[in-house]
Design a protein that fits this description.
The chain is elongated. A hairpin with a 5-residue loop joins strand 6 and strand 7. The chain is built from 13 helices and seven strands. By secondary structure, it is mainly alpha-helical. It starts with 14 loop residues before the first helix and ends with a helix. It has two domains: 161 residues, no CATH class; 144 residues, no CATH class. The strands form three sheets. The protein has a three-stranded antiparallel beta sheet with strand order 2-1-3. It has a two-stranded antiparallel ribbon with strand order 4-5. A two-stranded antiparallel ribbon has the order 6-7. Helix content is 41%, strand content 8%. Bound molecules: zinc ion. The site of zinc ion (ZN) has 8 residues, from strand 5 and helix 12.
Length: 321
């Protein structure tokens, strides 16, 4: 059972105390914008109801919010957009503890430069001092803390900011991923290290983006069985296998039901250069499973249709002729 109260045993502190701490964050080179941006994202995600308990996790919502703030507020190129850094180093500031199973994790275990993958596997998230968490649940306190961060570190007001910040950073991130799909699709391996935060978000959102392109239905048979809680029989499949290519471009995805996902990965069928079904000569009794020459269902956004060079790779390397 998760119980964090024991991590902090100081006296309950008030808003002025935390305004003070928020106003003098320990920052890399005395200038780095990472910590104030992460705290702004946390404030917003609490407000949106995406952080319901005192455990701040590296969710797609939080990362999307961090990225939206970064794009809006960090105009100089000198700093690398990395959410892992402030997530690790806010422990210096007296109100942020990294926890696993409700117990504080010594930061020495994580080293000075943990990757996002390391953080998401080795800790559950961060816990705030309980009195700060109580303040964050109150709208007036949140507004005061947000205004203080914006004024202290970026010299702007919340009203100035509202003009350029997307109302829903997660939806904005999804739209951006679809827009990125206008560049040339390449079949080389995507490097995780180039922009770790962007890579992580793209990977977290891949299932959502791909399924939305097919209205949550299988691209081969149109099956769309799901429960009211959103679990269902349709997966977001990678055409170029993820373990080989790390490519979460929407054009490397297909929404496929469990049967068609399995059969596709096994090379039982593939698609020709017109994105029409071709069937392995080794497959038997396949009537009702696939129809030869049937076209793939179209994507809601034509720019995000499955890449022809990815399908060609599947035909060459996976399909059992
Ligand atoms: Zn299907």
């Amino acid at each position: 059972m998760y119980s964090g109260e024991s991590l902090y045993d100081g006296e309950s502190q008030s808003l002025p105390h935390y305004l003070g701490l928020f106003g003098k964050l320990h920052r890399f080179r005395g200038l780095a914008p990472h910590k104030p941006i992460l705290l702004l994202a946390v404030l917003d995600e609490v407000e949106r109801g995406n952080i319901p308990t005192n455990l701040i996790e590296l969710t797609p919502e939080l990362v999307a919010s961090f990225r939206a703030y970064w794009r809006t507020l960090v105009l100089e190129k000198g700093f690398v957009e990395r959410i892992a850094n402030p997530f690790r180093f806010l422990v210096q500031d007296g109100f942020w503890t990294l926890v696993r199973d409700g117990i504080a994790v010594p930061t020495a275990e994580l080293g000075d430069n943990p990757t996002l993958r390391q953080l998401t596997t080795e800790i559950d998230g961060a816990q705030l001092a309980p009195d700060l968490w109580n303040l964050l649940r109150d709208e007036t306190s949140r507004n005061a803390l947000r205004a203080h961060l914006l004024k202290t570190y970026f010299g702007i007001s919340a009203a100035d900011l509202a003009i350029s910040l997307p109302a829903n950073p997660l939806e904005d991130a999804i739209e951006r991923l679809k827009l990125e799909a206008q560049a040339k699709f390449r079949t080389n391996v995507v490097k995780e290290t180039a922009n770790e935060t962007g890579y992580y978000l793209r990977h977290s959102l891949f299932p959502r983006v791909v399924k939305s392109l097919y209205l949550d239905s299988c691209a081969v048979c149109d099956l769309n069985v799901k429960t009211d809680t959103g679990s269902g029989l349709v997966d977001a499949a990678h055409i170029l296998p993820f373990h080989l290519f790390h490519n979460d471009d929407p054009r490397n995805g297909l929404a496929l039901c469990k049967n068609h996902h399995w059969g596709f990965d096994a090379g039982w069928y593939s698609f020709d250069s017109q994105r029409r079904v071709i069937v392995s000569s080794r497959l038997q009794n396949w009537l009702g499973f696939v129809s030869v020459n049937a076209p793939l269902r179209p994507t809601t956004d034509p720019d995000c249709a499955p890449a022809l060079n990815a399908l060609e790779w599947h035909r060459t390397h996976v399909f059992k002729r």
